[in-house]
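Q: How would the structure tokens look for this protein?
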Amino acid sequence: MISRGTLTLFGILLSILSVLVASLSAAQESVAESASRSAFHSAFPWASPCARIVSLAPSLDEVLFTLGLSEHLVGVTQFSRYPEAAKSIPRVGGFLDVNREAVLALRPTLVIALDEMSEAAQSLRNLGLSVEIVTHKTVSGILKSISDIATICRIPERGEEAVRNLQSSVERIGKVTRVPPLRVLVAVGDDSGEGPHRSVYVSGSDGYYSELLHLLGAENVHAGLTMSVPTLSAEGLVALDPDVVLVVSSKILDAQERQRVISAWHQVPGLRIATHKTVYVLDQDFMTIPGPRYVEALGQISEVLHAALAALDRKA
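A: Here is the predicted structure in token form.
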């Protein structure tokens, strides 16, 4: 007959055995999961840091699509319109009013922002999110952002290829369409039709548009810095005496609106552009979104500068 002590000992041994079996099973599952993750990351090296990305600017959307990461883009701002596929991605607020709750709900593994958004970026970091900040204020900044994001997402070769392609396109445009040193003024966001009859925002020598002009051989007549408030009056514009005015509109204009904007500039006494008719409206969306499509912006500026040259030659 088995004693009560033997039964107790048997029960203890059985319990220990059960614990050991469970631990072994858990260890095997852990090893299997680890192997599975390892195999997954080998096949998809970007998966860990960039599995779920939230972009806080339209230009960043374009970078991610350029790098082939669109399937991992789970959130964008309300201003995202390009490429077409970006329109169907969930919105997380605007450029200056990011909805933190909406971002959190998307469970991003990475949030990407521009350096102008440092306050919003820090607030998201405070919530425990991984946030990468890049700059798109210059062409070099745009190219660096492509390389940096590609490196973070473990696809550096895609970044290198994208940068090479953009640089090659710029070189081709520069060789074929370089212009004489025209003096150009870039008025940003002037779509009211009031033109220089009120103070206007002018791109300075430190700006993105100035860099594009330089790539084409033209000169920005405004040597000052780009300001966040209107900077020049009609008298100040006359003093600069530009050969060409490029009006970069913040929205697409119809023919009547475009003519109203151009006419407002032609009516300023003392501006040679009124005589030469060298005021051009640039209202394509890529003109106001410094990003990978800066090559298209460069091509558009080149086209109108050559038109201006023809107009100036006729008046000579």
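Confidence is low (pLDDT under 50) at residues 5-14, 19-46.

The CA atoms of residues 146 and 224 lie 29 Å apart.

Upvote if useful.
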